[in-house]
Amino acid sequence: MKNPDITLYTTGGQNGGKPSIILEELGIPYKVKNIELRKNEQFEPWFLKINPNGKIPAIVDHSKDDFPVFESTAIAIYLCENYDTEEKLLPKNDPKLRSQVIQWVIFEASGIGPAQGQSNFYCRFNSEKIPFAINKCANEIKRLYGVLNKSLEGKEYLVGNKFTLADAMSYPMVRGHFFSGVESIDEFPNLKAWIERIDARPATQKGLNVPVPDKMKEYRENPEKLEEFEKLMQSYFKDRLKI
């Protein structure tokens, strides 16, 4: 196997931190390019060649003929299938365990990610607050958190009682629950303990600080910074979407 030579294109945030967590947990060396979203760098022709959808994150694997991969879930599976030789995050030889991990990865991609993404817009980025939309998003997020909480009963992690891709993909989103309109998760004690458990993983924490210091931590600890970011994003979306 060739030594990996990967460039990660991302920015700080819930979704942008997923690939860097995977890279750090697997010990894969990589370079990183911080994409300036508010400058619309993601829509520049050079980036659209990497991701025609114009979104972060994305990677280019230079060790495999500059092969581009976009979408955080696709990136995570690609990295594991090509470089997780020790099956740290994705089982290869146990079909049932592998399926269980992938099921939870898709659960995040089709449920938690979209729900929190919608909530982020209505709670933070839309200058007009629409209570119905905000409450609908919050209720769906709590429903999904309830599924995780029940599944973590008597377990430290979601699959095989060890940290896998199943945990790594949901964690960056769930830890930012406050940003997505769910201020407290005290009603989900198993989920709360799971977050604290993953908080203690050095590689994951290193990944959260790529390409910039951990924004969710900054916003949680400094409400003024969160308010400042909200105003910047509201202005950006108002101009971009003409709302």
TrEMBL record:
CDD domains: GST_N_Ure2p_like. It comes from the Eukaryota. Residues 3-87 form the GST N-terminal domain. GO terms for molecular function: transferase activity. PROSITE patterns: GST_CTER, GST_NTER. Residues 94-219 form the GST C-terminal domain. InterPro entries: Glutathione-S-Trfase_C-like, Glutathione-S-Trfase_C_sf, Glutathione_S-Trfase, Glutathione_S-Trfase_N, GST_C, Thioredoxin-like_sf. Signal peptide: none annotated. Belongs to the GST superfamily. This is Glutathione S-transferase. It comes from Rhizophagus irregularis (strain DAOM 181602 / DAOM 197198 / MUCL 43194) (Arbuscular mycorrhizal fungus).
